[in-house]
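User: I'm writing a short report section on ligand binding and want a predicted complex to refer to. Could you take this sequence and coenzyme A and write out the structure as tokens? A short remark afterwards would be nice.
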Amino acid sequence: MQIVNIGTDIEEVRRFENIDIKTLRRLFTKEELEYCLKSKNKAQHLAVRFAAKEAVFKALPFEEIALKKIEVIREQGAKPQIIVHDERAKDLIFKLSLSHTKNNAVAFVIVLKDK
Ligand SMILES: CC(C)(COP(=O)(O)OP(=O)(O)OC[C@H]1O[C@@H](n2cnc3c(N)ncnc32)[C@H](O)[C@@H]1OP(=O)(O)O)[C@@H](O)C(=O)NCCC(=O)NCCS
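Assistant: Sure. The structure tokens for the complex follow:
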């Protein structure tokens, strides 16, 4: 296994407090919105997912990809994972860590591939 790149991003939670649904649907998948919008701290979950998308974007070995194609998935009670819905990412492995507080959300990603 070889490290391709790392990426990180930090977001202010308040930016995600009053976003219109059209913008949300442009940035996030249906499953991401379902997870975030059912929660008490909606903006924190949205902010950390946006941070994850930006962190992955920084670490990808190619540019020009819609943020919605970078998805954070959460199985019940499990660690968050990244799926990049793009043929160019098919051999890449993503390791993700997220954290958020009332004010800030941070994401860190490592991108790996088999040698
Ligand atoms: C998982 C845990 C570490 C999260 O920590 P936290 O300070 O509450 O929350 P953070 O803001 O740092 O992180 C939240 C994010 O962690 C991620 N996360 C959740 N469970 C995770 C896990 N098991 N592993 C890795 N990441 C996890 C999620 O992506 C979550 O964000 P999301 O809900 O928007 O998807 C915490 O809830 C936990 O279970 N701690 C165990 C403590 C414990 O058992 N102590 C007793 C020891 S005897």
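A remark for your report: DSSP finds three helices and five strands in the chain. The pocket of coenzyme A is lined by residues 45, 48, 74, 79-80, 98-100 (CB under 6 Å).
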